[in-house]
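step: validate -> pass
step: tokenize input -> pass
step: predict -> running
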Amino acid sequence: MPLAQNVPADKLINAIAEYLKDNVKEVSPPEWSLYTKTGPQVSRVPSQSNFWYVRSASLLRRLYIEGPVGIERLRTLYGARTKNGMKNEHFVKTGGSSIRKVLQQLEGAGLVAKASTKGRVLTDKGTSTVDRIAYKLIKDLQKDMPELNKYIPIKAE
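step: predict -> pass
step: emit ->
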């Protein structure tokens, strides 16, 4: 079982976002990202200051777990239900531009590559980055909760 599936998603995503912000120069929010919504299902622009890095980390985790994934499938994963006035709620996909730009930046950093099949996959560098961060998180979690050693057989130093 992959290491990233043994770590809580929110902790892993935040740790990867910090890594991207500090170590990967190719990943940075474009100017327009401060003023645009991520899709038709939201009413405001993202309020987090590090939204771009969190979305990048979330996409890395999603590619790690699901393998070759295309932009349309990612749009569906990040979509939500919306209500337009008096009409009934229905599901809408999120916008594809921010997902596409993040994936292009991750490709420039060498963490993601286009697959021969449809979609994108993590490169060896991307997989090792996610594994390394997940391993550190598992070790920290095992220090705090020794009972996890029973389920995740990694020895903390």
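step: describe -> The mean pLDDT is 85.
step: cleanup -> pass
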